[in-house]
Write a structure and sequence with these properties.
The strands form two sheets. The chain has a three-stranded antiparallel sheet with strand order 3-4-5, with helices on one face. Helix 10 packs antiparallel against helix 11. It is elongated and about 70 Å long. The chain is about 50% helix and about 10% strand. The protein is mainly α.
Length: about 270
């Protein structure tokens, strides 16, 4: 089966419709930079809107980007109800601007259906998804019981269940989530962590120095799709797993989320993790 074609964006309305899904939340008081390879989104970055005394620095940044050979396609200003191109002489923009695309815009629906994206209402709510949830007590007790007994193979099986299963993360057992956490917990599990990262991020740079047995078991049980949205799917499930894991076991998981989010161009999620 061939992988689905990448999502193509063709103008400011498409970019604005996709923005909450690519960032993970609806931005406000923000400067958002969306990078494209052709018409395909690659990375989305958000900055706080500059204070009055910092506007010139933002203009200088645009000039530096252009000087570096990066083409700036569009600069638009978006309000809760309308968007318009920056610049006083834009022939396509009225004073009122163009209506902001609705949540059922074609691109928004396509991204939501293909990735399961569910944007948060704002940045704080987005970060809160990584916070301690209701299951941490039960999952923590399962971790306490299983410390020292999770083998590389059983850990790989737990990771396979987490990332390759259609079962909602909330319905996975405490033992499976404990296995996911313990598989990468402790210094002796660094090889396992690196094997997971190499599969998720598609990086083969360190494969030659990895333990072949660990890498083989992870590759056997962690069968991921090759579609362009696989990282979005994996990150969504990892975020749920982090929220179910108590702090004393969650740090390696959060590190994996941070690395994968950065690799996938999700700087906000990487920073929260």
């Amino acid at each position: 089966m061939s992988a689905p074609a990448p999502i193509v964006l063709s103008g400011p309305a498409d970019l604005i419709a996709a923005m909450p899904h690519l960032l993970g939340f609806m931005p406000s008081e923000s400067v958002v930079v969306m990078t494209l390879r052709g018409s395909v989104p690659v990375m989305t970055v958000r900055l706080d809107i500059p204070a009055p005394g910092e506007v010139e620095a933002m203009v200088a940044l645009e000039g530096a980007v252009v000087a570096a050979g990066v083409r700036v396609h569009d600069c638009v200003m978006v309000s809760p109800v309308a968007w318009r191109h920056l610049g006083a002489s834009c022939p396509c923009c009225t004073v009122e601007g163009h209506p902001v695309p609705p949540s059922h815009h074609r691109v928004a629906v396509e991204v939501m259906v293909r990735t399961g994206s569910d944007p948060a209402v704002d940045r704080a709510a987005y970060g809160a998804r990584l916070a301690v949830g209701e299951r941490t007590g039960a999952v923590g007790r399962a971790c306490d019981r299983l410390v020292g007994s999770v083998s590389v193979e059983s850990g790989a099986q737990a990771w396979g269940t987490l990332l390759d299963s259609e079962t909602p993360v909330q319905e996975l057992t405490d033992e499976v989530l404990a296995g996911v956490a313990l598989a990468v917990w402790g210094r002796e599990r660094v090889q396992f962590r690196d094997a997971v990262l190499s599969l998720l991020c598609g990086s083969t740079e360190w494969v030659d120095v990895m333990d072949p047995e660990v890498l083989g078991l992870v590759e056997r049980h962690l069968v991921l799709s090759e579609g362009p949205d696989r990282m979005e799917h994996a990150l969504g499930r990892l975020v749920h797993a982090c929220a179910a894991t108590p702090d004393r076991y969650a740090v390696p998981l959060l590190g994996i989320v941070a690395m994968c989010a950065w690799w996938d161009g999700k700087g906000v999620l990487a920073r929260f993790a």
